Amino acid sequence: MDGFVGAPVSADTAGAATLVVFDCFGTLVTERRPMPEPPEFTRWVVDTLAVDPRLAGEVVESVFTTLYEAVLDKSALQPATLGLVDKALRERGVARPQEDLHRALWFALGCADGDRYELCGPAAQAATRVAGAGRTVRLMSNCYLPGTLMRRLLRGLGAPEVFDRELFTADGGPKKPDARAFELIGSGPFQRRIMVGDSPDNDIAPARRLGWDTVQVDPRRPDFSELYALLGM
Questions:
Q1: H helices within 91-215, ranges in order?
Q2: Fewest CB within 10 angstroms: 109, 173, 194, 227, which?
Q3: Are 186 and 219 spatial neighbours (Cβ–Cβ below 8 Å)?
C-alpha cells in the first residue's frame, strides 16, 4: 500500500497533492428518517414493478437477507443492489428493464420523500472551500442506492459538484471499514490523505490505520474548523 502510510502533519504543505475524502450519510447528507422497513419496501416493489405482493415479499426478503449478511461481515464485498433485485426477480420468472428497477429502488429507499434526506450545509461549504483551494475532493458512501441514483439524489439536494471521484458501495465491492475501500477511493499520487466522517468505526479508525489524517464530524453540530486547520486554510 505504497503512498498510504505517512506521518501526520499539522499544516498542509502538499497543495494539490492532498486528497480529502468526505463520507456521505451522516456527514454530507443527513437522514432525517431511518431507511424504510421491508414492508414499505415491498409495497413500492408491488406498485412500481407491477408484481403480486407475495412475489414482491420474496424478492425483498432475498435482497435484504443478502445485504444484511454482507453488512455483518466487515470484510465481505457488498453485492450490487441492482444485480440482487434483478436476480431475485428472474429466479421467480420475472424480468424488468433497468429503468424500472431504478424507479423501484428510488421510491423504495425513500428518495422521493421530500423530508427524508437533507444536505448538510456546513459540509457542502467545506467540500466547496477545500476544492476551491486546489485540493482533490472525493466522496465515499456505504449505501444501497446504485451510483446513478446516488448522484441524482445528491443533485436534487443541491450538493456541490466538486467531487473528483465517488465510491458508492451499492455498485458492488468493498465497503467501509474494509481497507480496500479506502485504497480504492484514495488511489493516486497523493502525499497526504484526509478522511472526514461521522463514524468512529467506519470512517475514522480504518483511515488512521492506513496513516491518513482524520476529522470526525458530529452530525448534530457539524464543525469543520479542524479540517480547515489541517489544511492551513
A1: 98-108, 121-132, 147-157, 179-185, 205-209
A2: 173
A3: no
Task: Assess whether 42 and 152 both reside in one domain.
Answer: no
20 near 137, Cβ under 8 Å?
Answer: yes
Within 10 A of 161 (CB to CB), how many other CB atoms are there?
A: 11
In whole angstroms, what is the distance from residue 60 CA to residue 67 CA?
11
Euclidean distance between CA atoms 157 and 135, whole angstroms: 23
CA-based nearest residue to 24, from 141, 128, 120:
141
Q: Same domain, yes or no, for 190 and 86? A: no
Residues whose CB falls within 8 Å of the CB of residue 50, separated by 6 or more in sequence, listed in order:
none
Q: Which domain holds residue 123?
A: 15-30+118-230
Query: Residue 70 half-sphere exposure, CB side, CA atoms within 13 Å?
Result: 24
Residues ≥6 apart with Cβ < 8 Å to 154: 28, 29
Question: Do 25 and 43 fall into the same domain?
Answer: no
pLDDT above 90 covers a percentage of the chain that reads 86
Domain CATH for 153: 3.40.50.1000
Identify residue 32 by its one-letter amino acid code. Answer: R
- Residue 124 CA to residue 119 CA, distance in Å, equals 7
Whether 27 and 123 have beta carbons less than 8 Å apart is answered as yes
pTM for this entry: 0.89
Residues 84 and 159 in one domain: no
User: What pLDDT was estimated at residue 1?
Assistant: 32
